[in-house]
Design brief:
Layout: E1 4-15, E2 18-29, E3 33-37, H1 44-51, E4 56-64, E5 67-68, H2 77-82, E6 84-88, H3 99-109, H4 115-128, H5 144-157, E7 162-166, H6 174-191, E8 194-199, H7 202-205, E9 211-216, E10 219-225, H8 226-231, H9 236-243, H10 284-288, E11 294-295, E12 301-302, H11 311-323, H12 326-333
Parallel strand pairs: 3-8, 3-9, 6-7, 7-8
Antiparallel strand pairs: 1-2, 1-4, 4-5, 9-10, 10-12, 11-12
The structure holds iron/sulfur cluster.
Iron/sulfur cluster binds next to loops.
Length: about 350
């Protein structure tokens, strides 16, 4: 059996004739764990829909579990989905059913006919998430962290080969966030699943040792290890995300830096680099030519003409600062003035 769980090569994906993901290239084998970083409008929901067979591949190659996306037909989709588990930020359990009945409902819906096997499976996955004693509890009797554990148990119940966790810790406090991330990591490793964990918060991945993919405007802009992201950042968008994380050595009232402007509308993308209207280093070339993802010898991939930390980047910064360009001044001041969209809200996702 092919060990590749996800394999995208130059994949361009569209929805309603609109391109929502562009030239996506990455692969995961069994047991791989990757963090996908991006805020609203960067394409992570589109990626999930693609994995689920809801969106069509327009160009390039794409394979999810054993399905070639170009050859995917309606009749293949139930089998594809049986091999995927999804954990959402705000997964809603059926409020009038116990934890056991919620799990039983999902197992029956996915073809588990034997009541004894369902019961064994429910006991096993609830034990895996540390909730074996909450079988008869109703959702309103559980804390937010426990409800998220139940949603993880539901995602694990059908034995997925790929687990996609979409902002699984956003509504939880920091201690519970770490418990949930650790739980997901342990389950992913013990079950040798591939896992994609989506978050907009780079603070969530600090101190972890996995692969990171940073997306912007439907495209991968940086891909490397967590260590490299924090110690050798090379894309200006990643650098801007890092500036927006609170630091433990900052006073509690410190204003965090946001990114100037708004993410592009994917229907009317700017020419050249999609980050150019917001980038403090943008030069003429950035507005004309779109940079492709290029990989250095150590596997660090970046799509940028003036990568952070290079002499070219420093020269670009100096030129823009001298010219008084707004994005550059905003970064130099460490915060942004009135027109900033902190939420980075608009755009397809
Ligand atoms: S320096 Fe240029 S290519 Fe790099 S992110 Fe900024 S605008 Fe894009």
């Amino acid at each position: 059996m092919d060990k590749h769980i996800i394999s995208f090569e130059g994949a361009t994906i569209s929805q309603d004739k609109k391109v929502v993901l562009r030239e996506v290239s990455f692969s995961l084998v069994e047991g791989d764990f990757v963090y996908l970083i991006g805020r609203t409008g960067t394409g992570k929901s589109s990626l999930l829909k693609t994995l689920y067979g809801d969106l069509k591949l327009r160009e390039g190659k794409g394979k999810v579990v054993d399905c070639e996306l170009l050859k995917l037909r309606e009749r293949h989709i139930p089998d594809l989905r049986r091999q995927l588990g999804v954990v959402f930020q705000d997964f809603q359990l059926l409020p009038d059913r116990s934890v056991e009945k919620n799990l039983d409902f999902v197992l029956r819906a996915t073809g588990w006919k034997s009541a004894d096997k369902r019961k064994d499976r429910i006991t096993e996955v609830l034990g895996a998430v540390g909730l074996e004693d909450k079988l008869k509890f109703f959702p309103h009797e559980l804390s937010g962290g426990m409800r998220q554990r139940v949603s993880i148990a539901i995602a694990l119940a059908c034995g997925p080969r790929l687990l996609f966790a979409d902002e699984p810790t956003t509504a939880l406090d920091v201690t519970v966030q770490h418990q949930i991330l650790n739980l997901l990591g342990v389950q992913q490793s013990e079950r040798e699943m591939a896992m994609v964990l989506v978050t907009h918060d780079l603070g969530v991945v600090a101190g972890r040792t996995d692969e990171i993919i940073v997306m912007y405007a439907g495209k991968v802009v940086e891909q490397t290890t967590t260590h490299q992201i924090f110690h050798n950042t090379s894309h200006p968008y990643t650098e801007a995300l890092l500036r927006s994380i609170p630091k433990t050595d900052q006073p509690s009232h410190t204003r965090l830096a946001a990114i100037a402007g708004r993410p592009p509308n994917l229907i009317t993308m700017p020419s050249g680099c999609s980050f150019s209207p917001r980038c403090p280093y943008a030069q003429d070339r950035c507005f004309d030519e779109e940079p492709q993802l290029t990989t250095t010898h150590d596997g660090h991939a970046t799509a940028c003409w003036y990568q952070v930390g290079t002499p070219e980047n420093q020269a670009a910064w100096d030129r823009n600062l001298a010219a008084g360009l707004p994005a550059t001044l905003a970064v130099a001041e460490g915060h942004i003035v009135d027109e900033v969209s902190v939420d980075l809200g608009a755009g397809a996702s």
